[in-house]
Amino acid sequence: MESISKATVRRRNRISEVMTSLTGGALAVSIVLIFALFVLVSVRGFAHFWPDELVEFTLSDGRVVLGEIHQRQLEPDAESGQLNLKVGNRDVTGLDFLWIDETDITQRRRPGGATVFERLEWGNFHGRMVELRRGDEVLAGPDQVEAAFAKLHPEKRADRERLIDFEHGEIGEVNDAIEELRLERRRIELAELPAAEAARRNARLD
């Protein structure tokens, strides 16, 4: 009985050691997978917010298209396919994305001076800076436009931040007060008060 008991203990110890090793290995694999998932999400996330390089395509019909390559779709059993381009300039073209056939491409290049601007309206702008204007006044021509823009841009961002603070502050308080008056007048209307009492309460709101 004593020898059987010792053998049982040794077997249980070996099983415990194996289970401990398996648990440690599973924990290590889980940590690696979590880290890999974090890296994947970070890379994909940063790629979403960071624009791709602009490419200029000249097509067989003479059109010139400037955009970011969003994805490539291959035709079955063919080396060529279609490119989905993020073309921007929605206010001009009405499109955010454009499909082109690779067989229609006669030239592909990465143009110097092409720029992506993230705008508050109408999506991104793709193109080249030619002039910087304030209304009809030309502030900078082709040779000075980039330096002038780099100087002016922080000032305009600061102006926008001040405008947002103003809208959320003083203007926001005024809008809240106007809305409260509107709701109070509506409550008076729904109360179906006598005309004299309704007039008295409305006059108090004026």
Explain what this protein looks like in three dimensions:
By secondary structure, the protein is of the alpha+beta class. The protein has 3 domains: 1-50; 51-117, Protein of unknown function (DUF3247) (SH3 type barrels, Roll), CATH 2.30.30; 129-206. It has 4 helices and 9 strands. The protein has helices at residues 2-49, 90-93, 145-190, 195-205, and strands at residues 54-59, 64-74, 81-86, 97-101, 105-109, 114-117, 125-128, 132-134, 137-140. The strands form 3 sheets. The chain has a 5-stranded antiparallel sheet with strand order 4-3-2-1-5, with no helix packed on it.
| Uncertain regions spanning at least 5 consecutive residues | none
User: Taking strands numbered 1, 2, ... along the chain, how are they ordered across the largest sheet?
Assistant: 4-3-2-1-5
Quaternary: single chain
Radius of gyration: 33 Å
How many strand elements? 9
Roughly what is the average pLDDT, rounded to an integer?
A: 84
Portion in beta strands: 15-25%
**What does the overall shape look like?**
flat
- Count of the domains: 3
Question: Count of helices?
Answer: 4
Distance between the termini: 101 Å
Q: What is the helix content? A: 40-55%
How would you sum up the major sheet? 5 strands, antiparallel
- Helix and strand sequence: HEEEHEEEEEEHH
Structural class: alpha+beta
